[in-house]
Amino acid sequence: MPNRFQHFDTRQKMKGDSYEIFYYQDRHLGPVALHHHDFYEVYFFLGGSVDYLVEGQTYQLQPGDLLLISPLELHQPIIHPDRDPYQRIVLWIKPEFLHRYSTAGTSLVHCFDISRPAHTNLLRLAPQQQELIRQTLDELLRQTATDQFGRDILCQALLLQFLVQLNRQIRDGSGTQEPEKESSLTDRVIAYIGDHYAQPLSLDGLAEEFFVSKYHLSHEFARVMGVSVYRYITLKRLLIARQMLTTGLRPSVVYEACGFRDYAGFYRAFKAEYGCSPTEFTQT
């Protein structure tokens, strides 16, 4: 394992053309907000005390666990005080890289596919399999940090090797774990929002849909997710809007398709969240 930890970077935008990899260790890290990004994330947990929330599912992590997170999933680590430092390797991969090297017989995106049967974000492998994954990530970290001849080719080969390893584990069913359900009500509300984000949504309407008081729903949702129902709906709509904008759709079409009542509201929410207007985002 490379012995140089990196300073934790709060940014959620990639600088690299294909991937970025980080090796973090923290003893006093503040809360990390519920968030999403436009790339795929592999999170290799090494130590500390962390629960990880992905779209309402709570995973109680053990050292050696892998989390696979797609661009469509809101997620957040819940970091608990612990005598051991919080250690992890975080790998970001651009969708274009996965699609570029996938073939008719080999989809590198498969391991991240939230629509596959029995999808779960958690991969809990046997010690021998963990070691194989760790060795590949260690070497990718080392090669990324060098400027030696052939670095770019070797890093690309290591990344592809790692992705093939991951997809083989998923296809073999090795180590995949069912999530630990934190709240069945929250799970159902999140699924409903995911299916109906383009339609009018409100706390009153959701409470009526699930036959609970809006006060109970508001409290329970915030307890599990760490954000209000309204904030979650806004984040989900913005996440989908960003994905739609990257396909070339015009902002004037996207805001309606994502459930915003008017363009002005969409514009304000988008700029507040991402620091640029929808039109500016399409030009970057």
Give unreliable regions as ranges.
none
* End-to-end separation: 36 Å
Question: What is the number of E strands?
Answer: 9
| Rg computed from alpha carbons, rounded to a whole number of angstroms | 20 Å
Using the 3D structure, state the CATH architecture of the largest domain. Answer: Sandwich
Helicity level, as a percent range? Answer: 40-55%
Could you explain the architecture of this structure?
The protein has 284 residues and is an alpha+beta fold. The protein folds into two domains: 19-180, Jelly Rolls (Sandwich), CATH 2.60.120; 183-282, Homeodomain-like (Arc Repressor Mutant, subunit A, Orthogonal Bundle), CATH 1.10.10.60. The chain is built from ten helices and nine strands. The protein has a five-stranded antiparallel sheet with strand order 1-7-2-5-8. Strands 6-3-4-9 form a four-stranded antiparallel sheet, with no helix packed on it. A hairpin with a 2-residue loop joins strand 3 and strand 4. The radius of gyration is 20 Å and the shape is globular. The chain starts with 18 loop residues before the first strand and ends with a helix.
